[in-house]
Amino acid sequence: MDYKSKKVIGMGVVTELTGLSERQVRYYEEKGLVFPERTKGGSRKYSFHDVERLVEVATKLEDGWRIQDIKERERRLSAKQRDDLIRGQLNSAFRTFPTKK
User: A single Pfam family, by name (predicted)?
Assistant: First the structure.
């Protein structure tokens, strides 16, 4: 695991780094856009990837995106990434070359 993936950043630092309020950060979590870990005491811990994600989400919302649009785009990208991965594995297994679309 790289250092950017470790969930070690508390809410106070996240709000300082992103410029978002605690309420905004909790709202994005509630909407399934970011997934912090919880300590035994219930405090949220975020990774650097989470911080980058929060900034990305906030920027898209400022640009007029809706939360539903963000989640739908990610769902489509995830499906494409999965398809690309499977295609790559098949190409590797059968020593074929990808076709251009």
Answer: MerR_1
Check: CB of residue 9 under 8 Å from CB of residue 51.
yes
Query: How many residues are listed for the chain in this entry?
Result: 101
Residue 37 pairs with which residues in a beta bridge? 45
Range of the domain at 95: 66-101
Q: How many CB atoms lie within 10 A of CB 70?
A: 17
Residues 54/20, Cβ–Cβ less than 8 Å: yes
Q: Which of 50, 60, 56, 61 is nearest to 13 (CA)?
A: 50
Per-residue pLDDT of the chain (101 residues; tens, 9 = 90+): 688 889 999 999 999 999 999 999 999 999 999 999 999 999 999 999 999 999 999 999 999 999 999 998 888 877 777 677 677 666 666 765 555 55
